[in-house]
Amino acid sequence: MRVVIVAVAVAALDAAALLVGWWWVTALVAALVVYRFAGKRVLLAVLAGTAVAWGASMVAQAGTRMSAVGDLVAAMALNTRGLGWAVVGVSLVYALLLALAGSWVGGVVRRLRRSEPEAIAEQDESVEAVEAQHV
């Protein structure tokens, strides 16, 4: 149940940010969610929520002419027509890469914050052991 809530929350936050053009919020949301919750299911929920949000945002902004908009972008970027599906696919892959990058950052920060007191305690113990040997 928590995974579904995470996916819906990620989709809602990402979609709201995308409607005002804040594409970079995708990485921030992923980082915050993975920092707070750990696990493969959470990562999959983040990726699913991101894909839904970006797909819904593209549909909301382009409407029924999403294929035509994709064809126009492909024509401008690649000097060819009929590759609108590729533009949409690349956009979704980019969104998933942003979410993965944010998830990675969130996981690293979580691990660093969790291991910080342990690392300090280990350093203190090793310093005390070295001092005890020299006395």
Domain module count: 1
Span from first to last CA?
A: 58 Å
**Structural class category:** mainly alpha
Give the strand tally. Answer: 0
Estimated radius of gyration? 22 Å
- Quaternary state of the chains: single chain
Element-by-element helix/strand order: HHHHH
Based on CA inertia axes, which overall geometry fits? elongated
Helix proportion: over 70%
DSSP strand content: under 5%
Reported for the largest beta sheet, the result is: none
Helix run count:
5
The overall pLDDT, averaged over residues, is 86
Which spans of ≥5 residues are poorly predicted at pLDDT below 50?
none
Question: What can you tell me about this protein's structure?
Answer:
With 135 residues, this protein is mostly helical. The protein has one domain (2-134). The chain is 87% helix and 0% strand. It contains five helices and no strands. The chain has helices spanning 2-19, 25-36, 40-62, 66-78, 84-134. Helix 3 packs antiparallel against helix 5. The N and C termini lie far apart (58 Å). The relative contact order is 0.14. The mean pLDDT is 86.
